[in-house]
Specification:
single chain; 155 residues; mainly alpha; three-stranded parallel β-sheet
Length: 155
């Protein structure tokens, strides 16, 4: 079809460039439990057309982001919905998974761990974070590696 381009394996950066120029992302796979490409498409403001039986990622398909299809019989109609539906995938993703929403979720999680954390104040960690006593040998070896100029792995 003249409006469809099929590519083989491409580097991830090239894939994102193709996706950015696309009018929709078609995901016929049902075996992917966590298709990162869906979130990437939404961030690039590209509507998604996803098989209804997909194992994961279905939470990204909403009336603001795209459509599901069930079989070959409804792909065309679902694709038309994606192309003409006036979707706002990026706006939806930012509202539900963007940095502000993510920081609110993190704040709520930390407050459940330590109710004394004030969610209205910025989280400031001390210059040297405390570690459990069982980690002291690891901490000492990292400190020694840094002081000696050797590379050290950080956790």
């Amino acid at each position: 079809h003249r409006n469809l381009t099929v590519k083989g394996d491409v580097p991830h950066q090239q894939l994102l460039e193709y996706l950015y120029r696309s009018r929709l992302l078609f995901v016929p796979s049902i075996m992917d439990a966590s298709p990162r490409i869906l979130a990437e498409a939404l961030c690039l403001d590209v509507p998604i057309l996803v098989h209804r039986q997909i194992l994961g990622g279905w939470k990204y398909v909403t009336t603001s982001t795209g459509s599901f299809f069930q079989s070959e019989d409804d792909i065309t109609q679902a694709a038309h919905q994606c192309l003409e539906g006036g979707f706002h995938p990026r706006r939806w993703f930012q509202a539900n998974y963007g940095p502000i929403r993510s920081s609110s979720r993190l704040s709520a999680f930390l407050q459940r761990l330590d109710p004394e954390i004030d969610p209205t104040l910025p989280l400031q960690l001390p210059r040297e974070a405390l570690v459990p006593a069982t980690w002291l040998p690891v901490k000492a070896s990292l400190k020694g590696a840094v002081e000696s100029g050797r590379p050290a792995a950080m956790f």
